UniProtKB/TrEMBL annotation:
Keywords: Cytoplasm, Gluconeogenesis, Glycolysis, Isomerase, Phosphoprotein
Pathway of action: Carbohydrate biosynthesis; gluconeogenesis; Carbohydrate degradation; glycolysis; D-glyceraldehyde 3-phosphate from glycerone phosphate: step 1/1
Protein source organism: Terrihalobacillus insolitus
Active site positions, chain numbering: 95 (electrophile), 167 (proton acceptor)
Enzyme class of the recorded protein, top EC level: isomerase
Alphabetical list of InterPro entries matching this protein: Aldolase_TIM, TIM_sf, TrioseP_Isoase_bac/euk, Triosephosphate_isomerase, Triosephosphate_isomerase_AS
Protein name, per record: Triosephosphate isomerase
């Protein structure tokens, strides 16, 4: 059985006080279980305080980005080692907003994925098509190319540990969720790509999330699908109760 991952991506939201309060409100309410990992992906500034607050609980703290270099003259950047040192365990890489607004490319995503493993962070690698690509029937080819480039050069064991988040760009923050069938179709394709490029055993183990307007009302249907192993959630992860409902849906599914 693949353990599901429900990750809340807060993006650029909350104050430090609000972030700490969220962890206070949720950390002891994650149901004890072996079916779901609960993760919040927070802005850099909040990470040490949230790690401290969540210590000894089932809530995991993630970063939303990082640089691929270990150190150096990269003003404004945060290194993989800094995240590891802060006690962070996961890092989101290649989110479509970073690709669109901050010149993230498949090449930098690949470098960052390697860099994450070098320090022992679990990467959550985002892929997904634009509306135009979907309308032109380019979804599968585009996502396939993104996945192949992201995992290039990783060992089989590392690919097994990567979490792949399929987030169709047209479904992010728009209220337009992909139907569970559309979402699963692409997640199934991603698993086939891993099988063809790595191995069947790795493909069977790799976890693939769906993201894009996921909320308590639609998460169950998504999680019931054969190849969807969790969700990467923006808006609906900002409130403690809503986040907990998403986690509980995974546990009860
Ligand atoms: O981008 C997302 C998560 O990374 C999805 O955001 P929404 O859930 O707000 O659509």
């Amino acid at each position: 059985m693949r353990k599901k991952v429900i990750a809340g991506n807060w993006k650029m939201n909350k104050t430090l006080a609000e972030a700490v309060q969220f962890v206070e409100d949720t950390k002891n309410r994650i149901p004890a279980n072996d079916q779901v990992e609960a993760v919040v992906c927070a802005p850099f500034l909040f990470l040490p305080a949230l790690v401290e607050k969540a210590k000894g609980t089932d809530l995991h703290i993630a970063a939303q980005n990082m640089h691929f270099e270990a150190s150096g003259a990269f003003t404004g950047e945060v290194s993989p080692g800094m995240l590891k040192d802060a006690g962070v365990t996961y890092v989101v890489l290649g989110h479509s907003e970073r690709r669109a607004y901050f010149a993230e490319t498949d090449e930098t995503v690949n470098k960052k994925t390697h860099a994450a493993f070098n320090v022992g962070l679990t990467p959550i690698v985002c892929v997904g098509e634009t509306l135009e690509q979907r309308e032109n029937n380019e979804t599968m080819d585009h996502v396939e190319a993104q996945v192949k480039r992201a995992i290039a050069g990783l060992s089989d064991e590392q690919v097994k540990q990567v979490i792949i988040a399929y987030e169709p760009i047209w479904a992010i923050g728009t209220g337009k969720t992909a139907t569970s069938e559309q979402a699963n179709e692409v997640c199934t394709h991603i698993r086939k790509v891993v099988k063809a490029n790595v191995s069947e055993a790795v493909a069977d183990s790799v976890r693939i999330q769906y993201g894009g307007s996921v909320k308590p009302a639609n998460v169950k249907e998504l999680l019931l699908r054969s190849d969807i192993d969790g969700a990467l959630v923006g808006g609906a992860s900002l409130e403690a109760d809503s986040f907990l409902q998403l986690v509980e849906a995974g546990v009860n599914e």
